[in-house]
């Protein structure tokens, strides 16, 4: 499995491409606002994106969804709890001084516990509400046997996601982290929605918000 995570504008969202090097199918997690950059990476590796998966639908995580969907005829999927946020992208853009992206055509909802596949890639969906009502994380097993967790804006290196935006809930995000994420192995590598990666063990021991 080929994995590449890279920051995209406008707010440095971490977008990840996971590709099966045998079938050339790929999954794109959080296609923020750099469609040309995402498409260039897919083309360079000869991958076809079959699905665009969103940890949540704040505007900085969905900016390239429509363009990549059109280019690859890929499914665009969110958790149903975030539909209201997706439908108010124009409002989000106005408040941040950004132009709202075109809305992609949404496919089936992401549901807790399901497995999303592309070739031999298998991603488990973990519903972790709090940052937004429909926030989810995705877990898979890396080629080295280590678990990878794509946490979106739920858990950060030394911090947690903000809860002062639409539908945020401070108590609920802590419950999600404690019950759904800290039960994972300490060695689990956490790819956060912004900035640098961390591990479950590190956050369990030193994250000040989780003490």
Secondary-structure map with pairings?
Blueprint: E1 2-8, E2 13-19, E3 25-29, H1 35-45, E4 48-53, H2 65-72, E5 75-77, H3 83-87, H4 89-96, E6 115-118, E7 121-127, E8 136-141, E9 147-152, E10 155-156, E11 159-160, H5 170-181, E12 189-192, E13 198-199, H6 200-206
Parallel strand pairs: 3-4, 4-5, 9-12
Antiparallel strand pairs: 1-2, 2-3, 6-7, 7-8, 8-9, 10-11, 12-13
Q: How would you describe this structure in keywords?
A:
single chain, 211 residues, alpha+beta, Metallo-beta-lactamase, Chain A, six-stranded mixed sheet, five-stranded mixed sheet, 6 helices
Please tell me about this protein's structure.
- The chain is an alpha+beta fold and 211 residues long.
- The chain has helices spanning 35-45, 65-72, 83-87, 89-96, 170-181, 200-206, and strands at 2-8, 13-19, 25-29, 48-53, 75-77, 115-118, 121-127, 136-141, 147-152, 155-156, 159-160, 189-192, 198-199.
- The model has no long low-confidence stretch (mean pLDDT 97).
Average pLDDT for all residues: 97
Total DSSP helices: 6
Instruction: Write the CATH homologous superfamily.
Output: Ribonuclease Z/Hydroxyacylglutathione hydrolase-like
- How would a crystallographer describe the biggest sheet? 6 strands, mixed
Shape from CA axes? globular
Order of helices and strands: EEEHEHEHHEEEEEEHEEH
- The CATH topology, please? Metallo-beta-lactamase, Chain A
Strand order of the largest sheet: 6-7-8-9-12-13
CATH architecture: 4-Layer Sandwich
| Cα gyration radius (Å) | 16 Å
Please tell me the total number of domains.
Answer: 1
How much strand content do the residues show? 25-35%
Structural class: alpha+beta
Fraction in helix: 10-25%
**Terminal CA distance:** 35 Å
Low-pLDDT stretches are none
Q: Please tally the β strands and state the result.
A: 13
In CATH, what is the class? Alpha Beta
């Amino acid at each position: 499995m080929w994995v590449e995570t890279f920051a995209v504008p406008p707010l440095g969202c971490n977008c990840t491409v996971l590709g099966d090097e045998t079938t050339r199918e790929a999954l794109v997690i959080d296609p923020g606002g750099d469609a040309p950059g995402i498409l260039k990476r897919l083309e360079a590796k000869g991958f076809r994106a079959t699905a665009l998966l969103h940890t949540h639908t704040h505007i900085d995580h969905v900016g390239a969804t429509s363009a990549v969907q059109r280019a690859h005829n890929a499914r665009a999927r969110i958790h149903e709890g975030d539909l209201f946020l997706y439908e108010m992208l124009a409002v989000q853009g106005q408040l941040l001084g950004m132009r709202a992206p075109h809305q992609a055509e949404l496919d089936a909802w992401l549901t807790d516990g399901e497995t999303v596949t592309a070739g031999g890639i298998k991603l488990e969906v973990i519903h972790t509400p709090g940052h937004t009502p429909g926030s989810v994380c995705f877990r898979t097993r890396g080629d080295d046997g280590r678990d990878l967790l794509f946490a979106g804006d739920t858990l950060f290196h030394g911090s947690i996601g903000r809860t002062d935006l639409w539908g945020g809930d401070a108590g609920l995000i802590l419950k999600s982290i404690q019950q759904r994420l800290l039960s994972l192995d300490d060695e689990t590598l956490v790819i956060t929605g912004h900035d640098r990666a961390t591990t479950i063990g590190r956050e369990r021991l030193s994250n000040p918000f989780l003490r």
